[in-house]
């Protein structure tokens, strides 16, 4: 992959020569067409990636936009987290003279096709991506698609998985988790529960992290499944927790959306928040300030995440930054924001 600027952009002829194939075979490989073997396709894509080759939009019958275009991949626009992120990314991209093409990877039937089409129309991709650590493929929902010749910035990289092979932004909750555990212990919480966006019998990384932080303050934290990361799942999970779960005096929710569902259920059952039960969310969404009681949360600075994502993607595309390595790995820390609910 290119690290700095080059005298000229790689052409289809360069890729064909490097892979030892014809121009037509390069076209078939880059457009995911039939008629070539898997080995040949992989050889062409590897050559394209190493040369930093980007197929001409004119060659695909597309009209080239006057601005560069950033592809933003999110999981679910119905989750209020992603519109806030998208708005911030669009703002920073506009400042740099870039358009943004948004792709919701949840509300489509063919995610592989979605990612393939997106990769053909943009100059860089950022967002919530599953990236194969071996061959550098991008995946959405398990459907692998090559992102050859594209700068890639993955948001919410899991540091436990090892150093990223692409641009990456890690979201670091460590200090905020310690702070919320100390806060809950200080206000007298004794029976906390983590309402997790996971099926029964499986705890998320967030749930395990919360349990460890609370245990350091002598608080045993039960993990109760909500099954999903939505407001509706939070409300249903809280109903189940009240009916069948252990006694509790605090709920730490997987995210703010789940926490809003918990507030809804508590209000319906006459459970006073925060006097009977304290409720904590995660993400720091602005909607948490428009509910009663206002939501205590482990907030992430969405503006900072978006700024890093755009700076990395644009810098990588312009040859000002490498396409992988510590220079293009950034971290954004959560912070505890104490409001009325806890």
Describe the overall structure.
By secondary structure, this protein is α/β, with parallel strands linked by helices. The chain folds into three domains: 1-64, lambda repressor-like DNA-binding domains (434 Repressor (Amino-terminal Domain), Orthogonal Bundle), CATH 1.10.260; 66-172 and 302-332, Response regulator (Rossmann fold), CATH 3.40.50.2300; 174-299, Rossmann fold (3-Layer(aba) Sandwich), CATH 3.40.50. It has ten helices and 15 strands. The protein has helices spanning 12-19, 23-30, 38-51, 81-95, 111-119, 174-186, 205-215, 231-244, 256-268, 302-317, and strands at residues 68-74, 98-104, 124-127, 130-131, 138-140, 143-145, 152-155, 167-172, 192-196, 222-225, 250-253, 278-283, 296-299, 329-333, 335-337. Strands 2-1-3-7-8-14 form a six-stranded parallel beta sheet, with helices on both faces. A six-stranded mixed beta sheet has the order 10-9-11-12-13-15, sandwiched between helices. Helix 2 (23-30) packs across helix 3 and helix 6 packs across helix 7 (205-215). The radius of gyration is 23 Å and the shape is elongated. The termini are far apart. Residues 1-6, 61-66 and 131-145 have low confidence and may be disordered.
Widest beta sheet: strand line-up: 2-1-3-7-8-14
Give the overall form: elongated
Largest sheet: 6 strands, parallel
Find the CATH superfamily of the largest domain: Response regulator
